[in-house]
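Task: encode each sequence below as structure tokens.

Item 1
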Amino acid sequence: MAMPLLQHICQVIYDSQIGTSIRESEYLFSIIESVHVLAIALLVGTIAILDLRMLGVVLRDVSVTRIARAVFPLTWSGFGVMFVSGLLLFWAEAAKNYTNPAFRIKLVLLALVGLNPLIFHTTVYRRVQEWETARFSPWRARAAAFASLTLWCGIIVAGRAIAYF
């Protein structure tokens, strides 16, 4: 019986020279994984600052846009490094990840966490001038912040769980 196309693609990626080199290297996989974790810390840490501000937990006297301008360059840097390192980790273990339930959950959560700021920036953030200096953000901004923090926590837990499935 032929394997599904996506599974076949994952197997080809897994069997590639790059995937094999990363997987079989004494140190490379661990180094990439460490870089991935540090990039996640940078990404999620900077996002958490903005989310916690919108929830009214920290920096209540600082405008939302001022915080956003300060953290976004670091957020995007963390995202770039996280994306590249995550891609390399996937490359090394694509065939195993195809059937890994934790990996599948992580992908779903990543899709949702990507939709969250897209929806936020096209809706409630468009009128940020009206509420950015308020000590507490409007409920829709707080809901987006809560969703963001919850989804990122889920992504981190699912990412760690990949090793155990």
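Item 2
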Amino acid sequence: MASTGRRFIDVVEPILRYVPTVPRPREALSMGSRLFWTFLAVTVYLLMSITPLYGLSPVTPSFFISPAIAAILGITFGTLAQLGITPLVVAGIILEILVFSDMINIDLEDPEDQAKFNALLKLLAIVFGLLEAVALVTSGQLIPVNALGGVLIVIQLLVATIIIILMDDMISKGWGLGSGISLFILVTIVKQMFAMAFSPFTLPGSVIPYGAIPALAAAIYYAIGGKMTYLMSILYQVNLPSLTGLIATIALALIVLYLELMEVSIPVALVQYRGYRYSVPLKLMYVSVLPIIFTAYTVYLIGEGLTLLWSAYNRADTNPFLNWLACAHMTSVGLIPCPNSLLYYFTVVPRNIDAAYIAVHIIMYAALSVIFAIVWVNLAGLSAEDQAKYIVQGGMHIPGFRPSPKVIAKFLDRYVRMLTIISGLIVGVIAALGDIAGVFGGGIGLILVVEIVIQYYTLALQEQLFEIYPGLKRLLGKE
């Protein structure tokens, strides 16, 4: 398998030389310069998210993706950011699985192989971007004015994908701070949160602003005049900003922040220096947010499949078996699933929510998230065996145990297994509760925002420390 993977790299290597890339800066940039380039990348991405695609028909398209997943992937419908970071994320996940499963033989510790990995990642992202752009046009999700318009839309999305890839490459190469993918996710979700909290604009047919805080001010104004209806209506609204959503956003953000900072310490010692001991921390939120993203996407795809089943075969709602699978009613406000059908439980927060939906939604998210967490840990190099290998390669061992990967892996297995299940359970429950409570940016988006903010805070402290003590940077091999 390894030789096959190596041959694949050798075959595509001539192509990788033509993949566009950003060179590293000749010398380490100051914090001010890196902040400038980071701000520039954010500005370009925001401009792309408000620039409409040329050649797009004014007919409102129907996108087969939920708003929550769109926010996570940095997607803004009908703009140059239509694909967002989807090509990069999909390419990254597939490539990591192929590398960690040894289907592609790349040593990420070798600088030359690391460069090939980065080039292959960009090449796959460009290919996925092109394929996704063509799929959006041919499936009718992006409706062009004519055939030429369709070609122009594909070209625009391909160029936009290359720009996003290069901006991510620029930031990760040391011109900016952190990761471009994380930065674009953060910008997209925070923009959505800001709109849900502060937008002064009103939706068609409403006199109350869209944002929760302006809506509260307007509702109080009407309440003083004797109209209490508006004040009661903004307490909780399904799929719209509300006071409940605002309070839940703050409360869950603090809970996630607390959980993200919790760690389990594994005592280790250096083999060469007996008596020198310290701890290797394993985060309580061990699997991060990827399993819940897979969970949300799985639930959404099943819901879309059931919706198509209803649309094609059961619009009359006369077949008992199909009614159990997919029963719904088309109204002026959209599709309303029947509470006694499976489609109801695979709809992301339906309008007619009840206690049964809340219970099933939480249990389903928690169970699927744990399953995907276990799968991801074994695919992404996070298993006990992988952690043991890293400890031994670092010249460390666990006191009282032989410095053998198998022995250490057996010791770590109970910790890794427990953290995998607990972290998967936590993110599943928080994401489900966030969706039900109307958290701004969605439950998954909130977890992502907190994680990325912590990463950037830690990175900023590290960079500040390196500027004060330049020798520390050389000592840690960060140059």
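Check on item 2: Strands lie at 263-270, 277-283, 328-331, 334-337, 396-397. Residues 405-437 form the longest helix (33 residues).
End of task.
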